[in-house]
Amino acid sequence: MHFHxxxxxxxTNVELKVSDLQRSLTYYQDxxxxxxxxxxxxxxxxxxxxxTALLTIVQPETVEEKQRMTTGLYHFALLLPTRRDxxxxxxxxxxxxxxxxxxxHAVSEALYLNDPDHNGIEVYVDRPESEWTWYVDQVHMVTExxxxxxxxxxxxxxxxxxxxGTVMGxxxxxxxxxxxxxxxxxxxxxxxxxxxxxxxxxxxxxxxYHHHIGLNTWHSENAPKLGENQVGLxxxxxxxxxxxxASSMKANLRAMGAPVIDxxxxxxxxxxxxxxxxxxx
Length: 281
Known about the structure:
Shape: globular
Order of helices and strands: EHEEEEHEEEEEHEHEEEEHEEE
CATH class: Alpha Beta
Strand content: 25-35%
Pfam families: Glyoxalase
InterPro entries: Glyas_Bleomycin-R_OHBP_Dase (IPR029068), Glyas_Fos-R_dOase_dom (IPR004360), VOC_core (IPR037523)
Protein name: VOC family protein
Domain VOC: 10-126, 167-281
Largest sheet: 8 strands, mixed
Organism: Lysinibacillus irui
Oligomer: single chain
């Protein structure tokens, strides 16, 4: 899990707008296995270990359904500590009757599902870093069928919620213009491109992770940004390493015309597709 420690710039928390807070709370606790860290009338912060905020869900006063074609969240991805944990959650999902997608990406083994508002969720486990294949600065990733039986053989049926050590592994965004967004995250925030998937998707990271952020235009090319009250992504947070890095990012972002707003513990910006990014120490 060293990819989700400083000095890497990794995702710490994802904030979602939902149409019914109580319905979403039930889902994220009973199905996904989160615990409630804090709760208010229209907001709840969720955790795996009882200490670290991973997901925040907010019900706007006026809720609107998401339009079919907008930018925003493609999925957020929860990284489990071990393959046994993945086996146990597969068994749990089966017992709950949850419909799943599943893929082997060579670097990872992943499950895909949607919350009640159709926000995309990935739950995955990384293969050992020693098994990843790099072609200089590009990591080999594929999308192939997942060998679920092989994973289940490692399970012990011991599921009592997301295990301690679960982190927000990455976020995958729907964007309107891939070239503009690439410039924002690479030149503005200092990410490296580690994989291109055709002409409509790319994956970026720091510290040679397979990806901390995914970007695609598969269903969002030239699409408008998500509306303020539409269900979907509200913000996501990235961890800053130090003040020098923060100052450099701010200068880069201002030079390209991106907004920079100081907030408690860091600053806020917005990518060219309207995705709000919080950068915090």
